[in-house]
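Hi U.,

Before I forget, here's the chain from the pilot set. I'm dumping it here mostly so it's searchable later in email.
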Amino acid sequence: KDKRLLTGDSEERLTILLDIYTKGRSKVGPHHIVACLNDESVQYDAVEIRWRNIVEACAKKQEWRNCLAIYNVSGGTRNAAMDFALGMGLLISEISDEPWKGKVLTFGTDPIFCRIEGSDLRSKIEFMRKLRQCENIRFSKVFDQVLEAAVAGNMSLDRMVKKICVFTDVDFEKAANNFWATWASVRKYQSRGYEKLPEIVFWDVKECVSVPQVKKFNGLVIVKGFSDSWANAWLRKGEFATPEEMLRMVPTPEELMRSALHRKELQNLIVFD
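Structure:
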């Protein structure tokens, strides 16, 4: 594996790097647990315990506080993509701080806050399945809703939403209504004392792939495709790295040799040429 990490093609090296990055950690993601709800052979109590374990583990991370989720999966999408969108959306809503905790924003041209109803995992997921689905979202209205809630609650900067995660099976270009025309939203936020808009992470979960495509812009991350390893790495770190950024993490053979020669026990080594 180490040799292929240095000599393999880009996709192979990324796959190995992700495997190393998540090795020794649970590879059971929220979407796996949601999928278990339809498996009659699995004890529901065990499913609920695994869900609580994931929530508690992620809730300890500072990166996941003050986040919001938006999810949207069309009726034609089934199985893994739907489970992924539902699981990730519910997880983010449960690990965020108040007043965002337990809420999602609906996906649409006139999005609204919705508190997730239910006393356990099954009832919450069933509630989320019934929420209205659309094909388009207007992010200027999303920003307006967040700002309105923040102003009404007189929220300080540290309690303001930092990240809005969108899980959908619709392409960004098709779903986002003129995303870049958000300059008016920036001015609204600044007039209320908030320096910048929340970051948008737009995750198109339509396809399961080994290495998702990741594009980063100022205030926007677009992800196309999902994988278990990528989701686990994201939940652990709280942010995305592009494939190029991840590959730069892989040391070159020269860097490995230099690191080996800088070990403490070799500091007094004298080389005679």
